[in-house]
Amino acid sequence: MIDHLPILQVIVPLLAAPICLILREAQLVRWFTLIASVFAFVISVLLLQQVQAHGTLIYSLGGWDAPIGIEYRIDQLNAYLLILVTSISSVALLAAGTSLQKELTERKETYFYVAYLLCLAGLLGILTTGDAFNVFVFLEISSLASYTLIAMGRDRRSLWASYQYLIMGTIGATFILIGIGMMYMMTGTLNMYDLAERLPEVQQTKTVFTAFAFFMVGVCLKLALFPLHLWLPNAYAYAPSIATVFLAATATKVAIYVLLRFIFSVYGFEFSFSHLPLKEILVALGLMGIFAASIVAIYQNNIKRLFAYSSVAQIGYMILGLGIGSKTGLVATLLHLFNHALMKGAIFLALAGVVYRVGSVNIKAFAGLGKQMPWTMGAIVVGGLSLIGVPLTVGFVSKWYLVLALLESNWWPIAILVLVGSLLAVIYVWRLVEAAYFRPALQDSAPYKEAPLMILIPTWILVLANIYFGIDTSFTVGLSEQISASLFGVAK
Amino acid sequence: MNFLEQYNYWIVIVLMMSGFYIVIAHGNLIKKLIGLTVFQTSVFIMYISMSKVIGGTAPILNEAYKVYSNPLPHVLILTAIVVGVATTSLGLALAVRIKEAYGSVEEDVIQEKDLQQEGSQE
Amino acid sequence: MTFLKNSVSLLLNQQTIKRELLRSTVIEITINVILLALLTLTAISLAFTKDLFASVMLMGVYSLLSASFFVLMDAVDVAFTEAAVGAGISTILMLTVLAMAGRFENRALHHPRIALFVVIGTGIMLVFGTFDMPAFGDINAPVQTHVAPHYIQQSGAEIDIPNIVTSVLASYRGFDTFGEVVVVFTAVIGVLALLEMKSEEVRNSVAPAPMYQHKILRIVGKILIPPIMLFALYVQFHGEYGPGGGFQAGVIFSAAIILHAILFGVETTAKAISLPFVKVLAALGVLIYGSVGIVAMLNGGRFLEYNALAENAITGQHVGIIVIELGVGITVATAMMVIFLTFARRVGKSNGESA
Lengths: 492, 122, 355
Description:
Chain C: It is found in: Cell membrane. The complex is a heterotrimer of chains A (about 500), B (about 120) and C (about 350). Chain A has about 500 residues and is mostly helical. Chain A is built from 20 helices and two strands. Chain A has a domain at about 275-490. Chain A has helices at about 5-25, 25-55, 75-105, 105-130, 130-150, 155-185, 190-200, 205-220, 230-240, 240-265, 270-275, 280-300, 305-325, 325-360, 370, 375-390, 395-410, 410-440, 455-470, 475-490, and strands spanning about 55-60, 70-75. Chain A has a two-stranded antiparallel sheet. The longest helix of chain B is centred in the last third of the chain and has 32 residues, at about 70-100. Chain B is built from four helices and no strands. Chain B has about 120 residues and is mainly alpha-helical. Chain C is about 80% helix and about 0% strand. In chain C, helix 4 runs parallel beside helix 15 (about 315-355). The longest helix of chain C has about 40 residues, at about 315-355. Chains in contact: A-B, A-C, B-C.
């Protein structure tokens, strides 16, 4: 069975989805979904072991070797992200049963879980495949499922947010399709590694250049890079809490993976960074994203939307790291992928607890919650500190590497800007802390109870992970450095 | 002469861009989806154009023919058509729910109502 | 006319092309030019009309024209699908939604200048990209010389079915097709999650009047439904030899059911086909496809490696392809039925609320 791990990674959640529809009973489906997700997590851990022991794993689907058929190809980068996605998915599902009771009617719960599994399978499919067109197919599976998840929010604005996301997402996917088509036109192949071999021959052509541009714009729409982020804040703000946890922590990360894979493994570092002003573009957009989104976040009264804008800013940090174009810069990006998932996972899960008890995430509703819901608010505070980048949290580790990379390249003015950006995070996190701890509770309502255990436990799993990986960085930093070295190694 | 070589692709670009224009310029949610369909269908035309071999025939093996057009883009576009209709139906379902919730399928009316709602909450 | 001369002189340069081939090629190119001109006309008039009903019709026309274009480009399977899906299913879904959302766009365009600017910029970028593209129809283009020749030359020996598109779709790139089936399934879940109504809501709703009272429609429709279903089965099982396969068959089969619903009312049809059961079938189709892959794994092959399904590799391929096509057909047919009926029922809800 060990041989089949790469495909099992995807088909376990993929086949669990239709089975869930047949099972129908919400209770049953809930457990089944959780088991499928945990199983996927176990597979991803085994995969990482296999990759560390034997190097890149290749699995030819249908027994047809690439480029004739489609192949799955898993190296450290894939395995790293697979672990990230499946672990966050499993933790979020722990809280799903309780949280959804308040946010969905029972009849729709089954559909929620089916869509969730399909979204998970779609993301995992993107992460495992070595075929450019297969990326498009699984991208659409995950996208369609996430539009559904978002539209299931209680507020009618979730519908509008989902529609906007659908339009932007489909434009992005169509751009990606145009890009893949032009690459295929010039090389005759769809396999990423075959493409990497055949592209250098034609890399001076205008067609390949256009293909690269369209593919990148399409992916950047998906990963909500400033200024293509407009769909994200409302989508995260009005989706059911569990959907927000899952999507905020994973979906944009997978899009960044696609970006990295095509920049480094398909086009090659040299083409991407030497022939094009990609470095300047990425750094500029990253910085603009950090500042614009952080400033907008400060003025938000809806706390879910506040942290959604903060996500756009954090994507800016990741893109900035990539834009530096050095090994350390890439390490910073890879670290922040993982760390940001932990922070936002913890924060949005805690907010799920607030929604469960209070029913609102407006900043006014937070008055006095610091005393009434100490564990929930504690989680948000730790997550917030991590966002700011305080030592002993994961946020510090990734910021440290980012600043290190900037200083290595003698880009100290930008390093200063990054630190100023962190100060903006202090402001928006402080607004929340001030409301929760220093304002008296509203008189007219009975005090709220602490969030239910089934939400608190997964929240604190992620909070402790924030602290653990902030102190013991051997796993994340070690792996990121290996990945970064191998990505640059391939390129040179 | 060159004109003929790239003629198909240039027309395809005009088609794609009319679809793209409808998506971003029109405010009616259903019209946007129509634009999206046109945009995607035009990309299909690009793929199918590249598969064609002049003097070739449909890729169904037959002893009478030797030259076949490339079957691979056909397969890709079959998949893409299905993806397209799936997206359209989901988009339409959202439009129906939006109509029920907001009483309109016009972008600016919806945004106005959202602003009012946010204003009244604060 | 100068254009025709150009095309003839271009072809004369390629001396390898025989005379009779030349004549047919000129005809092909002429039709190509006309079709593309019509497509452009349709797309541009779409941008200007404010009548959504007209827009939907134009969209259907656009689909049919592109289907004709695909035939010209030798992509018969794609043409078949585009005609069934683009001109058929999409159009009818759009019309159903128009019944709820109203017929006219009543607002001005949004920042038409900025939109035009973005669109023209994107277009210029794309035109820039065409300058180094291989010439249209060139047999030496990279797409014709790498990977594709394997399918054309070897699929006869490796899979042994005449339709190469089916070979690639079902076997060489069978996993993409699996993904495609899952996409359809995802759409079903999305539509159900958004639009499915509780049973009491269904009871309170006023279903749109069926066309039962139109005698000619009813009789012609009744006569048509069985042959449509029969044709769907033919397309399903003939996909290995000619254009067709599970996807097209599924769409055609669902068309018969949709026709039934239009003639006899949504609720009659929903009862006749038992909607909850049909939902299960949609899931089952995906599982059938997946289980072929798993059986192959249990037999010592890779996922979807049909060679492992039987003693003889070719037999294995045939068995695998027939079963997965069946899975595709089931999921697509039931998915389209569920999606259409869910939309149509919802029309009844808005009727019920206004009544």
